[in-house]
Write a structure and sequence with these properties.
Elements lengths: L2 H4 L2 E11 L4 E12 L3 E14 L3 E14 L3 E14 L3 E8 L2 E4 L3 E8 L2 E4 L3 E8 L2 E16 L4 E14 L17 E13 L2 E13 L4 E13 L4 E7 L4
Parallel strand pairs: 1-2, 2-3, 3-4, 4-5, 5-6, 5-7, 6-8, 7-9, 8-10, 9-11, 10-11, 11-12, 12-13, 13-14, 14-15, 15-16
Length: 244
């Protein structure tokens, strides 16, 4: 078999069609396509709708429209504008979300920029995650650096990592759809080395260096090095513990 014959071929779908057995090079869909088997490609370009009945694996994806994956999703990088639903686990090393992504299983990424909405029913792990939209995680969000600077509320059960920042962006109040919204992050527990949060409601906060803004409502704070609390913050109790 020649090298040319072994090279994955490109396919282009305009209109309504099905996707056969791969692997493929470039898959470009303008319209609607259905993949009944596992779908593997180097590059995926969607303007329209794609339904994958099993798993989807690709190196690079750019999605404008709607993609439904009933199995697992694995990508090196993805730029998502539209709606993506994953029935299993989702791994995207470099993710940009300006639409809505719903994951029934776990989410894993190296970097994630969320301008839209990311909804994860399982666990969520990202080395660096920046949220300008909203994040809904039913389980644990594990991170190295997390930054939530948004006017939209996020709800996360537990957060654990090295550094976290939570606040509203600095904008004139008249530009907000709802200037009276005060909760940007709602969580059961937050644990990190460096914590700098505002507009946050949490039952427990544990950290090494902790800063609490005046719009926070925290049930219990545990810290080891320093604690700064702005006037106006609601704090139930705080205690300092020595580092082990």
């Amino acid at each position: 078999m020649t090298q040319e014959a072994m090279k994955p071929h490109d396919i282009r779908i305009i209109g309504d069609s099905s996707i056969g057995t791969g692997p493929f090079g470039l898959v470009r869909v303008v319209g609607e396509a259905n993949a009944r088997e596992d779908m593997t490609c180097r590059e995926l370009r969607v303007t329209g709708t794609v339904k994958a009945e099993q798993n989807l694996t690709c190196h690079n994806a750019r999605i404008i429209g709607e993609v439904e994956i009933k199995g697992d999703c694995t990508m090196q990088s993805a730029n998502i504008t539209g709606n993506v639903r994953v029935g299993g686990n989702c791994t995207i090393q470099d993710a940009s979300v300006t639409g809505e992504v719903k994951v029934a299983g776990d989410w894993q990424s190296a970097t994630a920029n969320v301008w839209g909405c990311l909804n994860v029913k399982g666990q969520c792990a990202s080395e660096q995650i920046k949220v300008r939209g909203s994040l809904d995680v039913k389980g644990l969000l594990n991170f190295d650096q997390a930054e939530i600077v948004s006017g939209h509320p996020s709800k996360i059960q537990e957060l654990g990592g090295r550094q976290i920042i939570v606040r509203k962006p600095k904008m004139p109040w008249k530009l907000w759809n709802n200037p009276f919204r005060t909760v940007i992050l709602e969580a059961q527990s937050i644990e990190a080395d460096d914590i700098d949060i505002d507009y946050t409601t949490a039952a427990e906060v544990r950290g090494t260096r902790v800063k609490i803004g005046k719009h926070c409502s925290i049930g219990k704070i545990e810290y080891s090095e320093s604690l700064a609390v702005e006037e106006g913050a609601e704090i139930g109790a705080s205690s300092q513990h020595s580092q082990e």
